[in-house]
Automatic annotation (TrEMBL):
Protein name according to UniProt: DUF190 domain-containing protein
InterPro entries (UniProt xref): N-reg_PII-like_a/b (IPR011322), N-reg_PII/ATP_PRibTrfase_C (IPR015867), UPF0166 (IPR003793)
Short name of any one Pfam family annotated for the protein: DUF190
Organism: Salinicola corii
Family: Belongs to the UPF0166 family.
Positions in coiled-coil regions: none
Length: 111
């Protein structure tokens, strides 16, 4: 694993329609990441998920507003702690998973 770095995977999960301060919550997360120079991100649209209250969130044929969205990042421990704290400071209601991982770009092309 010496090719890979040790760090954290940070995942934020929120319904597409959830808003905070007039903007989508996942936009708050993306903007917060950019402000911390965290560039690599994967956005996934999930089929369905249940919140802490057990309410089912899902994409419907005519309305995707309740579809769960995941934003996944990988970074070192220090940056992960700063990122989670910064998102928490926004006050935006979002579920977060933070777990240890090994990560890195394999077979990177030069240039």
């Amino acid at each position: 694993m010496n090719r890979l770095k040790s760090g954290y995977e940070v995942i934020f999960i929120v319904p597409e329609s959830r808003r905070h301060g007039g903007k989508r919550v996942y936009d708050w997360v993306v903007e917060t990441a950019k402000s911390l120079d965290i560039g690599r991100m994967t956005k996934r649209s999930d089929v369905e998920g249940a919140g802490e209250d057990g309410k089912l969130h899902s994409a419907h044929f005519f309305d995707l507003a309740d579809q769960p969205i995941e934003l996944m990042y990988a970074m070192d421990e220090e940056k992960a702690e700063c990122f989670v704290a910064a998102v928490e400071e926004t006050g935006a209601p979002v579920f977060c998973i933070c777990r240890p991982v090994y990560f890195g770009q394999l077979n990177a092309k030069n240039g």
